[in-house]
Amino acid sequence: MACIFCKIVNKEIPSTKVYEDDEFLAFRDINPIDKVHILIIPKSHIESLLTCDKENQSMLGKMLLLASKIAQEQGLVGFRTMINSGAEGGQEVFHIHFHVYGGSEKLAKI
Length: 110
Ligand code: 5GP
Ligand code: ZN
Hints:
This protein is an alpha+beta fold. It is 21% helix and 22% strand. The longest helix is centred in the middle third of the chain and has 17 residues, at 57-73. The radius of gyration is 14 Å and the shape is globular. The chain starts with a helix and ends in an 8-residue tail after the last strand. The model has no long low-confidence stretch (mean pLDDT 96).
């Protein structure tokens, strides 16, 4: 399995873990774009939001609630969530992940 995030799940590649349960893992992005920048992934390999369907509804809901929980645990009072989907949507690692980031004083308006 060449997937870099599966390798992180299997501890073949080290990561700075901030949360783990049976279904999900969260760790710090290696190239942070903000003071706090966490990636949340399901442990099972799912390629992208583009390949999700109704079967993944519960997992996606859990990931969103986890984003809020982890952001608050990291001391963020506000945060952003980003899900790059597909190469044309900026996705570089094809194992679904939610970016959760924040903490900078000046917020870029998008
Ligand atoms: P994407 O562009 O696919 O939405 O985001 C992939 C993210 O994964 C990037 O922000 C990148 O910095 C991060 N990343 C890529 N490889 C690694 C790695 O080996 N370890 C960690 N912690 N983050 C990684
Ligand atoms: Zn994977």
